[in-house]
Amino acid sequence: MCGIIGVLTDRPAAPLMLDALKRLEYRGYDSAGIATLVNGGLDRRRAAGKIAALEAVLDAHPLAGVSGIGHTRWATHGPPTEANAHPHVAGRVAVVHNGIIENHAALKEVLIAEGVRFDSATDTEVVAHLLDRAIAAGRRPEEAMAAVMPRLRGAFAFVVLIEGEEDLLLAARRASPLAIGLGEGEAFVGSDATAMAPLTRRIIYLEDGDWAVVRRTGTSVFQEDGAPVKRPERVSSISGALIGKGNYRHFMEKEIHDQPEAIAHTLHAVIDPGTGTSTLPSPLDAPNVSKITVLAAGTSYYAGLTARYWFESLAGVPCEVELASEFRDRDAVLPKDGVAIAVSQSGESLDTLMALRHAKALGQKVLALVNVPESTIAREADGVLLTRAGPEFGVASTKAFTAQLTAFCALAVALGEVRGHLPAARVTALREALAALPARAGEVLHDDDRFHPIAQELSRARDVLYLGRGLSYPIALEGALKLKEITYIHAEGYAAGEMKHGPIALIDEHVPVVIVAPSDGWFEKTASNMAEVRARGGRVILLTDPDGAARLGEGADHVVVLPAVDPVVSPILYALPVQILAYLAAVEKGTDADQPRNLAKSVTVE
Ligand code: G6P
């Protein structure tokens, strides 16, 4: 899983590609490289580490050329060293690749038996060798591609640059995203439209199994079997401006502070601000939706877990939430008239895309809840609802999460209204509670000094537990995920009632326990669990509201008092303190909150 760019232009290619790679860094950032044609011959620069390391190499050793390919890597096969960084070169062929060639070991064995020597530990290099050998055997580049494609298995995208071919890029896509950009006498290939946004907005999205011959004057697309096919040109709405951090230290900090706006804008996607009425997006607007199946990964999965409570209690609709990576491995039984909701910030997570396709094959209509409008998941779903969080760059999702929660809650209220499950007065009250959230979120963010001492304590811990019940349980899971992904501190989220069945054994005076407990219907029971922690010497950090603090504050080591809100919308507000605590703990530890080790923002491998 990685970011890919290819350019055929009449300007220096290296700076264009470097800019594109910075836009693609969300897809991986453990090593990077570019290759160009200089006087017809291949030349390349590569570096282990973030794009900045490649930039330094290019400053010291500039790379000429107007045709080239570039790559930012998230390692799958082979550690993130310079030797494993792309582009990989075999003879006349250079390749950049995203995804996994699943049968690479078998192909490598055959190639080694034929006398080929490998320079890297990657799966990618087999593609370069296969193409090079086909070309060396006298095939034209497109014939070589047609011969090699059927030999490759897996989910991948790649772009090829060939020595002596100044006006040619070969591009292929199977499941992993890839798009072609059309310019005036220029052509581009990229993992997404954002990478190419400063270069062109005219985009052709390749479909699954497509491969393409890209030249400055035009592009020909072929299907898996080699038959030519036409794919429509679209005009992308994505802006070419690079979004900055403003006065914030990290994108994550900025994005945490973007949340009042993200929540407000997303609400307007479901509830008309003028009339206060809702429109359900297709296919959720069907009269007899029998069941909702949410498909998602990572933080988006926790948004789905929260949504289940809302769909069941507010709309009376059965709901199951599936880890996208597991969904296809079960014989899930899905009913007629069921709707699946694929939730994804990026709209590109491969597991979620595969789960979407599986749900379709099982007869479900699919709604995409995504933050990136032209993403693959948005394009493949039957209907789309956009979260309006704006571009999110921090690897750890923050504003996209609260935007997903907001959309889900507003949808559940709307469904509850049309199905007659909620009395009119409750519909109005809940819409008011949602509408008040941006202001409440603003109050939490305004008063963030109080989080510092708690974050300091967390940053020194080896293990941290997060507990919550009911609607607060997914927030406990999300809090633990946030902390571990950006501080590398071991953290576990638990249903408060489950603590006594295991995690309680971990508790001593060294284990901080963050308890998410607005004063809702589960409050008394969570209070008992808190007492159990205290009785074993555990340190309690309580996130609650004024009423909860009055009832329990004395029993906690730290109390964070949040504004009182309708308990139904509380997860949206309580997401903020767990994000802030994780972020400040990362700052305290000195880890890179925006680009933590080993992770990537968009995961396009299974
Ligand atoms: C990665 C990111 C997470 C994100 C997850 C799902 O693991 O690091 O922040 O929640 O992917 O991504 P998606 O784009 O599908 O929401």
Give structural notes.
There is one protein chain. By secondary structure, the protein is α/β, with parallel strands linked by helices. It has 3 domains: 3-235, Glutamine Phosphoribosylpyrophosphate, subunit 1, domain 1 (4-Layer Sandwich); 251-445, Glucose-6-phosphate isomerase like protein, domain 1 (Rossmann fold, 3-Layer(aba) Sandwich), CATH 3.40.50.10490; 447-591, Glucose-6-phosphate isomerase like protein, domain 1 (Rossmann fold), CATH 3.40.50. It is built from 19 helices and 25 strands. The strands form 4 sheets. An 8-stranded antiparallel β-sheet has the order 3-2-4-1-10-9-11-15. The protein has a 7-stranded antiparallel β-sheet with strand order 5-6-7-8-12-13-14. A 5-stranded parallel β-sheet has the order 17-16-18-19-20, with helices on both faces. Strand 19 (365-370), helix 12 (376-380) and strand 20 (383-386) form a beta-alpha-beta unit. Bound molecules: 6-O-phosphono-alpha-D-glucopyranose. The site of 6-O-phosphono-alpha-D-glucopyranose has 16 residues, from helix 9.
- Give helix % range: 25-40%
Low-confidence stretches: none
Main beta-sheet annotation: 8 strands, antiparallel
Query: Which architecture of the largest domain does the CATH hierarchy give at level 2?
Result: 4-Layer Sandwich
Kindly report the average pLDDT value. Answer: 94
Question: Structural class, please?
Answer: alpha/beta
Task: Say how many strands there are.
Answer: 25
Beta percentage is 15-25%
What is the CATH topology classification name of the largest domain? Glutamine Phosphoribosylpyrophosphate, subunit 1, domain 1
Nearest-angstrom radius of gyration? 25 Å
Question: What is the 3D shape?
Answer: globular
CATH class group of the largest domain: Alpha Beta
CATH superfamily placement of the largest domain: Aminohydrolase, N-terminal nucleophile (Ntn) domain
